[in-house]
Each structure stands twice: as C-alpha cells, then as structure tokens.
Amino acid sequence: MQEQHYNHVLVAVDLTRDSGLVLQRAINIARRNQDARVSIIHTLEPLGFAYGGDIPMDLTSIQDQLDSHARERLAEVADPYGIPREDQHVVVGMPDAEIHRFAGEHGVDLIVVGSHGRTGFALLLGSTSTGVLHGAKCDVLAVRVGADGEATE
Amino acid sequence: MQEQHYNHVLVAVDLTRDSGLVLQRAINIARRNQDARVSIIHTLEPLGFAYGGDIPMDLTSIQDQLDSHARERLAEVADPYGIPREDQHVVVGMPDAEIHRFAGEHGVDLIVVGSHGRTGFALLLGSTSTGVLHGAKCDVLAVRVGADGEATE
User: Fold this and answer.
1) Which residues of B touch A117 (CB under 8 A)?
2) What is the ipTM of this complex?
3) pLDDT in tens, A41-89
4) Residue B140 and residue A136: Cβ atoms within 8 Å?
5) Domains detected in chain A
C-alpha cells in the first residue's frame, strides 16, 4: 500500500492571528511523520511592485525595516513552538513563486497554508492559499481557519 | 495540544487515471483517523451550461447517459478500494459548488483532491482543486499527482 511520508513540511503564514493555529497543525503532521522537519515562511511583496518605476527615491531602507519587522513578528509566532530561527524564513517576492521556489530548493513535500473559506476575505488576503496550490510540485494542505472556522478544530 | 481528527473524508475525482491514486491517499488518511468514513464524488457539468438556452432539444436522455457512464467509471475506480456504492456519488452541477454543498450536508471535514501542479494543465482541467479550496468550509488536501508527480509517492 502506498503510504505518503512527509520529510519536510513548509508552513506559509500571513502573520495574522491564525498563523499559530496553522503552524500547530503542521507540527502535528510532522510529529506523525517521524518528526519531519518544519520550516515556516512569510513572504513580503517588494515595495517596488507597488511604488516602483516612477518614484525615484530609494526604498531599500524602508524595505529593510519591513523585513526586520516581519522577522520579529514571525519569531513571535514560531519561537513558542520551538521552530529554530534558521527554519524561520522571511522572503521578498510574490508569495506563490517564492513559496514554490523555497519548496523546490529545500525538498519540501508538504506545504501547509491557512484557508479562510470566505471568498471575499480570501481575495482580500491575496488568495495565497489558492495561489500556492496552483503550480505546486508537492502536496498542499489548506487548513481551515478564521472567524467562522473554529468549528473545525 | 490541538489535534485534528477527521471523521468524514470526501475525495473529489475527475475520473482520469490518477483518481485511484488520490483515493488511495484519502483512504490512508482515513485509516489514521480511526477509520473515518470515505466518500467519493465526481461532478458532471450539466449539458445545459454548455448547450442550453438556444437549443430546443431535450438533453435529458443524453445527460442521463453521461450520468450513467460516469457512475460506471466511478465504480471502476472505487469498487477495488472497497468504497460502498452508497458512498460513491455522481452529481450534476458546477464542481466547486456541488462539492462544497455535499461537504456541508454530510459533515465532511476533509476534502481530498488531485493536483496536477502544472499551471496550464490545471487550467485545462477546470482548476477543480483550486476552485474547491476557494470557499471550502473544511480542510482541503491537494494531492500531487500526474506525469511528473510520481516522485512524491
């Protein structure tokens, strides 16, 4: 019988308050897979995508501040769950592409994302969960979270 | 610690040759969840969506033939895995909406779909996996299958 065994679980979080819940679920899965490695990633869209081109000022320092802020927030989410800092990643780029790239380069065989279930809200969030699924080279688990999602836990 | 326990796993299949693989994965998950119930569903888009309106002829008998054919194909996929006929469902409608409706009405807490990973091919397939994720009220696992997906097994 074919039994899927995951070696490396990547949790993609948006740093909203549900991120800890999504991480917890990923950790549970990792434990059931002989303590698979768990990495956590947050993607920041580059400022240039929104403001670039016409604006001559250097956005590097602002980007650095955002990056630094995101790293702190990610640590607040991941540290309590014992995720080592070297497995906490903040990357700048388009979420889908960066998550797929990271997964490919690090032998990730399961990506776990939060799913908010409400179409409108999901769209507001940039539909990371649906975007990640699209084009993924490995399994993707969308964990139902959010205001009307507690019933699934 | 929060541990997700699934009671009813719904496998949505497109009846391509990967359907058995997706079903097998769902069965594995069900076994790890104290033999959760496994239902399998295939959705047929109503002929009327494509041909309706301007065409006066009655498509009912053709729809019935398609429906009957789909039931046979679904049984060929599901019978070897011991899925009882009453848990094999062919429904007519838009895939996302029908799968969500079925899930809501039958207490499904995990939907398993196949994911082909290649953007173009996924689009050709109507992107059922991404569509199902969008708006789902429960967890969704997209299982990586397809020509370049065997590596994940």
Assistant:
1) 135-137
2) 0.74
3) 999 877 765 555 565 567 778 888 888 999 999 999 999 999 999 999 9
4) no
5) 8-152 (3.40.50.620)
